[in-house]
Amino acid sequence: MIPRLPLVVVGGGLSGLAAGVHLAAGGVPVLLFEQKPHPGGRAYSFPDATTGETIDNGQHVLIHGYAATMRLLETIGTKHLLATQPVPALVFHHPSRGFRTFRLPALPPPLHILAGVLGSDLFRLSDRFKLLRAGLSIRRSVGEGERRIADLTVAGWLALMGQSDETIRSFWEPLAVSIMNEHVGSASALLFVRALRTAFLEGRTNAALAIPTVGLSELYADPAREFILRRGGSVRCATRVVKLAASGERTTGVTLQDGSFIEACAVVLALPPAESRAVLPDGLTAGNFLAASAAIPFSSIVSTHLWFEREVMSHDVVGLIGRTTQWVFNRRKLAARGGEGGHVSATISAAHDVVGRTQEEIVALVMNDLRSAFGKNLPEPWHALVIREKKATFSATPTVEALRPDQKTPLENLFLAGDWTATGYPATIEGAVISGERCAALGSDFLRRAFNAS
Ligand SMILES: Cc1cc2nc3c(=O)[nH]c(=O)nc-3n(C[C@H](O)[C@H](O)[C@H](O)COP(=O)(O)OP(=O)(O)OC[C@H]3O[C@@H](n4cnc5c(N)ncnc54)[C@H](O)[C@@H]3O)c2cc1C
After folding, report:
1. Are strands 30-33 and 234-236 parallel, antiparallel or unpaired?
2. How far apart are CA 242 and CA 256, in angstroms?
3. pLDDT digits (tens, 9 = 90+) for 174-194
4. What is the DSSP letter of 188?
5. What pLDDT does 18 receive?
6. Percent of the chain beyond pLDDT 90?
7. Ligand 1 site: residues with CB under 6 angstroms?
8. Do residues 193 and 141 touch, judged by C-beta distance below 8 A?
9. pTM to 2 decimals?
10. Domains along the chain?
11. Contact (CB, 8 A) for 193 and 157
12. For a designed S-S bond to 15, which of 149, 270, 373, 398 qualifies (C-beta 3.0 to 4.6 A apart)?
């Protein structure tokens, strides 16, 4: 079933690429437009001008339980480029108690949580049973349980679960800020609990970290583009879509920045919220379906790459408890193709108070945090690069769920993709890929119905 007109995908981030790949895999070649010179959206890599090393716009971490992302990587043939932990384990550095590990042994869930929590020296003995209580509540919080926590922040939910300040600081806050890109005081309990259920209760190894060993573009964007091309589709970069056209209940195509009009049998809009609203046809009353999305707030991420004359950390990944820098990644150990000396990347999520500072200030702050964990004698980096993503993700607060639109729209052949659409997930690669998969299914269904009717 190849339609006469192309199915157009607008936006070459992970959601648009996922839609394009799944449609192409199902026999529907797509025509994808991306405004930048390269696909990848908010997950891309580029060569650092000083070292020539390929670096990412921000360290991206997946977990093994991201089923849709794993399916996408299998389809485009790059799953083997992830380094996945054999058993889930997180290493933290506590300011007064030093390095501590939380590891889930190879037992079926929920026994692995039980053994992991009771056996971990990250938690005080008295806190371990309280943690298990929270685990039980995550297990039960489906259906009515979800409705009860829908208005709560993570901090509100943790208070209900009787969690101690120390466990919140040492465990919940580092976990929440990395999954939600918000601090516990603002992040949505509902989205957090859902993400934890997937990670910790739906499979023994779901929580295992899966870290790209190559740049993000080599992992996702380039192979996804090649897959689409091999299946007869087309990916046009440096091509901005300025308007969507509609007639009656249907979209008829898109206008490009150069003024040309591309007729389409259906369109997947895989753009951020403001850009999606901007391309909707003027006077489209159905356009109200995106009005609420104008209130979606955003959160920033600051990533700092530091190069040293020598290796400066022995672990792969360390969570820094009680510091501004939350996670530190040893790029020399994680990357398949390493260079000389040490290379560390440090992540500050929900970086509201940091994103406006200068590169020198941020490097000094990160170095201070690193020295507090890895020793006062840590040398100065010989090269540093700070990447500030001001609108890295939407801010996953409790009010945001009501503002996220469905992938289905009032126009029968227009579908919405993006990590900010209603996926049930926080703003993650998994959410973006799920939205793309859903749009591909909706697009195929529409074409099947249209063909059967004609
Ligand atoms: C620094 C950082 C770290 C992150 N870390 C993680 C992590 O560890 N784990 C995780 O799961 N997620 C992480 N994320 C989130 C993840 O990157 C995003 O959820 C995902 O990339 C979003 O993909 P998307 O397709 O929804 O949106 P986008 O990537 O924003 O894609 C939208 C695309 O549309 C294009 N576009 C816009 N307007 C037009 C137009 N008019 N015409 C044509 N094209 C247009 C844009 O250029 C862009 O390529 C991180 C994000 C950042 C920024």
Report:
1. parallel
2. 6
3. 999 999 999 999 999 999 999
4. B
5. 98
6. 87
7. 10-16, 33-36, 41-43, 57-58, 60-62, 240-241, 270-272, 275, 279, 301, 303, 389, 392-393, 418-419, 427-430, 432
8. yes
9. 0.96
10. 7-43+215-295+401-453 (3.50.50.60), 86-207 (no CATH), 298-394 (3.90.660.10)
11. yes
12. 270
